[in-house]
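[job 4471] stage=fold_predict status=RUNNING
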Amino acid sequence: MIDIEANPYKADFPLLAGKPEIAFLDSGATAQRPTCALDAQRHFYETMNANPLRGLYSLSVEATEAIAQVRAQIARLLGAVDERGRAEARDIVFTRNASESLNLVAKSFAPCVLEPGDEVAITIMEHHSNLIPWQQACRAAGATLVYLYPEQDGTITDDEIAAKVGPRTKIVAAGHVSNVMGVENPIAKLAEAVHAQGGYLVVDGAQSVPHMAVDVRALGADFYVFSAHKALGPMGIGVLWGRHELLEQMPPMLTGGEMIDSVTETDAVWAPVPEKFEAGTQDAAGIYATGVALSYLTETVGYDAVAAREAALIAYAMERMAELPYVDIIGPAEAARHHGVISFNVRGIHPHDVASILDMSGVCIRAGHHCAQPLLTWLGVENLACCRASLAFYNDKSDVDRFVDGLAAVWSTFNA
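[job 4471] inference complete, writing structure tokens
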């Protein structure tokens, strides 16, 4: 039995500890940062501030080694290891965010395989960052974008996969966990289906890495992306993992310093993977802090504790929300299928008003289309907007109680 009334974690997060009047329920948009991650950025600048890869002096070498260690750490985190269990660090590319990582695949890999008449299949649940790049890639190649539609509870059925992933499918791109419905998609089944057609699977892990252990080999992914800022790390750091042979054949999306091996007046030779995709000076301090943040998440707390605590919080929140007959939850009725996210609406009240009134009580939720307009259109959600409460392991029972009590106050405000 998880004690969600006790909270051993809030003290590790300066914003939460310093603002006890805040109930932060928007971790799906960005997580709070633990002290160790904040300290890590300052530590980098105070002790090894030099441009990685560009110097032979000790400070630059130390910075280079620090980044290399984080690259290997993330490879192990994602299960990207060889048959001897060694991290395949060279297959970890640093970007600015998951959106840039997805754009890199769509702009650099898709043209290598897409031809006129081919199809790219995505789910209607995709965040715009895993939708618009494929619209553009299909338009450029003369390919067709095909949508997989879930049941009302978010389930993508085997029949839907069989109907939409066929002989013309070259790429399937899917979120591991929906940022609106909170459901985990059948990634391994999608991988099996597209690989049977000789195609490739791209997975958006922005909403999964903060909540669960990931094994890209077991999932069958060919590319996997996530953002550091949703996993307790700093803003401005994204990660792309790809199968090495695919990264090798891709041209760089950005060109300039650091991503070259040699340059003449008329041509250039690209640096090896991953440097080929990392033009210019990287946010070395941010990458270093990302490593510390991920260590806190996976070692200090641990995914088992994260999953158990978040499941208990979600179950309690949905139990309490069920007390309010005017609140409609979007997605599955089973709390266990909501990975950190509960989307909902309050009948007759615009989500922006709900969020604004909750904010007056210090409750922070998200309201709007959540970068998922096609999903909300398909669901028939009024105003193409809904509310979203996204919880993390650092929340507790009092946060949920303030949130649900706040919803009751919202209803009373409009129905006095």
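[job 4471] summary: The chain is about 40% helix and 15% strand.
[job 4471] exit 0
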